[in-house]
Design a protein that fits this description.
five-stranded mixed beta sheet, D-amino Acid Aminotransferase, Chain A, domain 2, D-amino Acid Aminotransferase, Chain A, domain 1, 18 strands, alpha+beta, about 290 residues, 2 domains, binds 4'-deoxy-4'-aminopyridoxal-5'-phosphate
């Protein structure tokens, strides 16, 4: 595998960054997770926009233009013969002192990894993904805004540990007010009749690219889609709950906290949206 570091493609064993990089020392940096399907990169521009917005939000100047980032992502995919896979652009603050000051870090590091993707087993899409609510509260937007896709994922890692220790693979994270925020690495939706609801980002959700695409598809299909404050009551009493994310795509949720949601299987709305989403990924995207 060839990894891109600052314009060069190097063998993965030689792909190294300094132990003084603030990305490592402080989680000071930003990243994206992007999918390639059948030789095309899905929603590449939207991911690039979010990457640059995340960087802007943490005062991190990305040393290359959006156009060059796109060209270099494509180059990295070609070098690794990726037609289907997962692409991880990362921008770290770069080497600094052992102090916090980000402004002494003069060389942000741009890294691009293009790899095969580790998917959930197909049976999980038939059965759905069981969740628990975890005690780890989602970062306060006033502290670390969850709209920033930063390298500081400890909040999510702590939630994931709780989920795994409870014997499930994903979880519901609540915000400090007790409202539903998102899953540890996916967005959450609830279906109530013809209505499809998802928490607004100010409740503590990343503005997922998949979330946005699913909202658009659902509106085109005639559903009434809105961002609303959701409590666990709304999830427990929903007809269907599903998660969205670049890796997971759309996955139904049959149980939360051992309570059955709807009829305990991925429901018709989840299935219709999944079919529409799969169609969209197969016919759109930036050619590699
Ligand atoms: N929330 C969090 C915390 C995530 O890490 C992700 C995955 N990047 C998502 C939601 C889903 O976002 P996307 O659809 O852009 O992958």
């Amino acid at each position: 595998m060839k990894v891109y570091i600052n314009g060069k493609l190097v063998d993965k064993r030689a792909a190294r960054i300094s132990v003084f990089d603030h990305g490592l020392l402080y989680g000071d940096g930003v990243f994206e997770g992007i999918r390639a399907y059948n030789g095309r990169i899905f929603m590449l521009e939207r991911h690039i926009e979010r990457l640059y917005a995340s960087a802007q939000a943490i005062s991190l100047p990305i040393p290359i233009s959006r156009e060059k980032m796109i060209a270099d992502i494509l180059r990295t995919c070609r070098a690794n013969r990726i037609r289907n896979g997962y692409i991880r652009p990362i921008v770290t603050r770069g080497v600094g002192t052992l102090g916090l000051n980000p402004f002494v870090c003069r060389n942000p590091q741009v890294i691009i990894i293009a790899a095969k993707i580790q998917l959930y087993p197909p049976e999980l899409y038939e059965k759905g993904l069981e969740l628990v609510t975890v005690g780890t509260v989602r970062n306060l937007p006033e502290a670390i805004n969850p709209r920033i896709k930063s390298l500081n994922y400890l909040n999510n890692v702590l939630a994931k540990i709780e989920a795994l220790n409870a014997g499930v693979m994903e979880c519901i994270m609540l915000n400090a007010q007790g409202f539903v925020a998102e899953a540890s690495g996916d967005n959450v939706f609830a279906v109530r009749g013809e209505r499809i609801l998802t928490p607004p980002s100010w409740c503590g959700a990343l503005e997922g690219i998949t979330r946005g695409v699913v909202m658009e598809l659902a509106r085109e299909m005639g559903y009434d889609v809105s961002e609303e404050i959701l409590t666990r009551y709304d999830l427990y009493t929903a007809d269907e709950v599903f998660l969205t994310g670049t890796a997971a795509e759309i996955i139904g949720v049959p149980r939360i906290d051992r309570r059955t949601i709807g009829n305990g299987r991925p429901g018709p709305v989840t299935r219709r949206l999944t079919a529409a989403f799969r169609q969209l990924v197969s016919r759109s995207g930036t050619p590699i």
